[in-house]
Amino acid sequence: MARGRKVNSNGERSKKLLLEKAIELFSERGYHETKISDIVTAADLTQPTFYLYFQSKESIYKDLNTQFKNTFLEILQRDLAWDENSSSIIDDIKKCMTNLFTYFSNNPKLTIIGFYRSEEAHSIKETFAKILEKKISEVNYSDVDSKVVAESLVGSVERLTLSTLLKGIKTPEQLASDIINIYFVKQYA
């Protein structure tokens, strides 16, 4: 909560509006082409209002990236954690893909920032691949390199999010099902 303001006060609405406009502008223009003046103009607020909530353009951008990364990693850790009650590893991966695609679909502009444009995007994808590799290696199919499968899955998620999901061509469930069928069901059924 900023500067002792009550929740749902005008201040909280202003902060939320600044974040929304920053997401729009950073996703459309990128970090370097977006100025604080652009954000406050889009939000119909003043620069002093901006500085009540954020120290700089970098701080609001980092906040947005942290928000994306934390939710992304939470989904991965929740859905791909080892669970003795899990029906199958493939079901866990499908659930994870569905939840990731749902998150992306519900937050398309934040996804553009966090999964594609930010400096951390590469490390987020590396973490994603490592977690997937570990999960896939539990299947223990000797003829399949789990690292190659994991990296391919991340690449598929990256490409299909832009080309199919964010364009509304497929739902998160449909896209997750297609990916599972391509990578797992046909080979291991």
Which features would summarize this protein structure in a list?
189 residues, Arc Repressor Mutant, subunit A, Tetracycline Repressor, domain 2, 2 domains, 9 helices
Helix/strand structural class: mainly alpha
Average pLDDT taken over every residue:
89
CATH superfamily of the largest domain: Tetracycline Repressor, domain 2
The stretches of 5 or more residues where confidence is low (pLDDT under 50) are 1-8
Order of helices and strands: HHHHHHHHH
Share in β-strands: under 5%
Helix count equals 9
Strand tally, please?
A: 0
Bin the helical content. over 70%
So what's the oligomer here? single chain
CATH class of the largest domain: Mainly Alpha
Q: How far apart are the first and last residues' alpha carbons, in Å?
A: 51 Å
Shape: elongated
Radius of gyration: 19 Å
Largest sheet descriptor: none
Annotated CATH architecture of the largest domain: Orthogonal Bundle
Query: Under CATH, the topology of the largest domain is which?
Result: Tetracycline Repressor, domain 2
Query: Structurally, how many domains make up the residues?
Result: 2
Topology:
Layout lengths: L9 H20 L6 H8 L3 H7 L3 H24 L8 H18 L1 H10 L3 H17 L8 H20 L6 H17 L1
Helix pairs in contact: 1-2, 1-6, 4-5, 4-6, 4-7, 5-6, 5-9, 6-7, 7-8, 8-9
Overview of this protein structure:
With 189 residues, this protein is mainly alpha-helical. It folds into 2 domains: 10-54, Homeodomain-like (Arc Repressor Mutant, subunit A, Orthogonal Bundle), CATH 1.10.10; 63-188, Tetracycline Repressor, domain 2 (Orthogonal Bundle), CATH 1.10.357. It contains 9 helices and no strands. Helix 1 (10-29) packs across helix 6 and helix 4 (57-80) runs parallel beside helix 7 (121-137).
